[in-house]
Amino acid sequence: MHIRTRFAPSPTGFIHLGNLRSALYPWAFARHNQGDFILRIEDTDLERSSQEAVDVIIEGMAWLGLDLDEGPIYQMQRIDRYRAVVKQMLDSDLAYPCYMSEEELNQIRDQQMLDKEKPRYNGRWRPEPGKTLPPIPTDVLPVIRFKNPIGGSVIWEDAVKGKIEISNDELDDLVIARPDGTPTYNFCVVVDDLDMKITHVIRGDDHVNNTPRQINIMKALGGELPVYAHLPTVLNDSGEKMSKRNGAMSVRDYQKAGYLPEAILNYLARLGWSHGDAEVFTKEQFVQWFDLASLGRSPAQHNPEKLLWLNHQYIQNADSKQLAELTKPFAHVLGIDTENGPDFAQVVDLLKDRANTLIEIAEGAKLFYLPAPAHTSDQIAANIPKEIVPALQDLIKAIEAAQPSKEAYGSIFKQVLTHHQIKMPALAMPVRYALFSTTQTPAIDSVLVVLGKQEVLNRLSKVV
């Protein structure tokens, strides 16, 4: 079997992490099996669909590296195909026109609820042998309904949830086309999956209730059923289903917050799937390890702290030059001129071990691109004790003669500290203040290297 999977979002809102997980798993399954991965945009809800939402979906997937074999394919561009299948179903007695008005339908449902029955269409316009249908009203455009099987059950072996059985008595005759001829979601999904030869439908478990309807339509059309795998819900950190209404962040929000796509992908992979005790792994490892059997059945809970920790791991281990390029846009927003001053890749290399996001790196880098401080005599007296000045003078002389390396500067500090019988903070704090007007910086020997020997000497000489 040639594996073909799909991600089929509705462009009716921004795409958040829960949505992206529903893209990641079918992508990984297709890649693991050398199959095809298809993006299908289910945009038949004309009122709520937007091009901006489509753009965010495509950008988010590209950012994560979820490459496509086909698509994006838009359902609204396939309307003629759906209408042709509706006609085929009408001609084959698989569907029928229903002239029940919305008002009549609501009245029936209200009565059913009063009678403590499940609200459902009562089959009034369903043609049956020996049944006389009501007169066709002249003022109602019909919907088209699928003739759902009567009796029996829909049974499938879900790759995540196991065996699922739904009685056909629980399903009424689904509307497959609206009065204006526009096809409905559940119908379009089936036609698309058949036409695109989808072998595995991997999606959120909010679609479980749709599945028996889709299976019945697919069987009526003579199609071979795909394997279904319904993923447990992703909950937010408050235990509610992740959604925009419950404060979920969009993909763009994570980009703007300085997260790396590799960290997001790694994090999403672990939201419902595991490979032993592996916590940090590459995209290539994930594809190699991924299978449906390892998908969990329990809801996955979003953990912002875990995501931030993962992002730190990836930042810490990233190539500093590549990381610098990713950080530059955030630095420029802060007004940092990365082309003038210390080598930006060196600054990033110095800061990355402590940073959780690219924004944190940019904020830390700002210190190295500010003008040299202009201290007053009172400020110098308050922050650089007189008794430290001799040690500071010796340090300046040693730096002048030293090679500009972390090892050399570290050795110089030890020599000066030993000679003057003082502790590291007593000298390092005044040095930091002289260089930046703050006593909070990364390791001082590394700072000297990054700032540059001449700039260090210029700034230190102004306070002694």
From TrEMBL:
EC number(s) stated in the UniProt entry for this protein: 6.1.1.17
Motif ('KMSKS' region): 241-245
PROSITE patterns in the record: AA_TRNA_LIGASE_I
One Pfam family of this chain: Anticodon_2
A Gene Ontology cellular-component term: cytosol
InterPro entries named among the record's database cross-references: aa-tRNA-synth_I_cd-bd (IPR045462), aa-tRNA-synth_I_codon-bd_sub2 (IPR020751), aa-tRNA-synth_I_CS (IPR001412), aa_tRNA-synth_I_cd-bd_sf (IPR008925), Glu-tRNA-ligase_bac/mito (IPR004527), Glu-tRNA-synth_I_codon-bd_sub1 (IPR020752), Glu/Gln-tRNA-synth (IPR000924), Glu/Gln-tRNA-synth_Ib_cat-dom (IPR020058)
Aminoacyl-tRNA synthetase class I anticodon-binding domain: residues covered: 322-463
Motif 'HIGH' region: chain residues: 9-19
Binding locations of ATP: 244
MF terms (GO), sorted A to Z: ATP binding; glutamate-tRNA ligase activity; tRNA binding; zinc ion binding
Catalytic activity: tRNA(Glu) + L-glutamate + ATP = L-glutamyl-tRNA(Glu) + AMP + diphosphate
CDD domains: GluRS_core
Record key words, sorted: Aminoacyl-tRNA synthetase, ATP-binding, Cytoplasm, Ligase, Nucleotide-binding, Protein biosynthesis
Primary residence: cytoplasm
Function: Catalyzes the attachment of glutamate to tRNA(Glu) in a two-step reaction: glutamate is first activated by ATP to form Glu-AMP and then transferred to the acceptor end of tRNA(Glu).
UniProt subunit comment: Monomer.
Family, as annotated: Belongs to the class-I aminoacyl-tRNA synthetase family. Glutamate--tRNA ligase type 1 subfamily.
Protein's recorded name: Glutamate--tRNA ligase
Taxonomic source organism: Polynucleobacter brandtiae
